[in-house]
Amino acid sequence: QKEVEQNSGPLSVPEGAIASLNCTYSDRGSQSFFWYRQYSGKSPELIMSIYSNGDKEDGRFTAQLNKASQYVSLLIRDSQPSDSATYLCAVNMFGTGNQFYFGTGTSLTVIP
Amino acid sequence: GAVVSQHPSWVICKSGTSVKIECRSLDFQATTMFWYRQFPKQSLMLMATSNEGSKATYEQGVEKDKFLINHASLTLSTLTVTSAHPEDSSFYICSARPDGGTFYGYTFGSGTRLTVV
Description:
The structure holds 2 protein chains of 2 kinds.
Chain A: E1 4-6, E2 11-14, E3 19-25, E4 32-38, E5 45-50, E6 54-58, E7 61-66, E8 71-76, E9 85-92, E10 100-102, E11 106-111
Parallel strand pairs in A: 2-11
Antiparallel strand pairs in A: 1-3, 3-8, 4-5, 4-9, 6-7, 7-8, 9-10, 9-11
Chain B: E1 4-7, E2 10-13, E3 19-25, E4 32-38, E5 45-51, E6 57-58, E7 67-73, E8 76-81, E9 90-96, E10 107-108, E11 112-116
Parallel strand pairs in B: 2-11
Antiparallel strand pairs in B: 1-3, 3-8, 4-5, 4-9, 5-6, 7-8, 9-10, 9-11
């Protein structure tokens, strides 16, 4: 069974702190990994993608991938109240063609 | 960048009627599009995979005769909720990405909030 798991939270961090969001996946053949942000009542928006082991930085966001541990994370530096949202991890698993598998999401609240 | 347009953004309908939701890729072609449903405080649930020129693939538990999908062109997929009931009230979202390769993230439409009264 192909699974993507996230801690549902809620995760609360003070403004300016680092928020760390984690995701594990079951299929070792997974090829591409994505983080989406979803504000309440809105559709998800893509914020980061990562395909190779290691870190990928984009502004205040850093995605980390460890394929050996089947683990992908998202770090948000200098967290802002506007970062408060649900963060969804998505994995494109080998052999599934175009299909994405989503985690259940982690709710993040940044406290001013 | 890839833009997906979804229409309408919200709709209220009477129980027993049908509602059509459109999903368009505005600046790219998409052989495959996906339809999701999301209930309050829950994650996205994949309903079906829409394939241009062929029948849609439905996830287990999703009634294909109730949720009709038509992917008539490379830029348009429609989801019709037939004989809608209050329990069909939900947030419906489509997604698509440009054809070619697996290294593109999917772009989501803005979603359709369906309320059946």
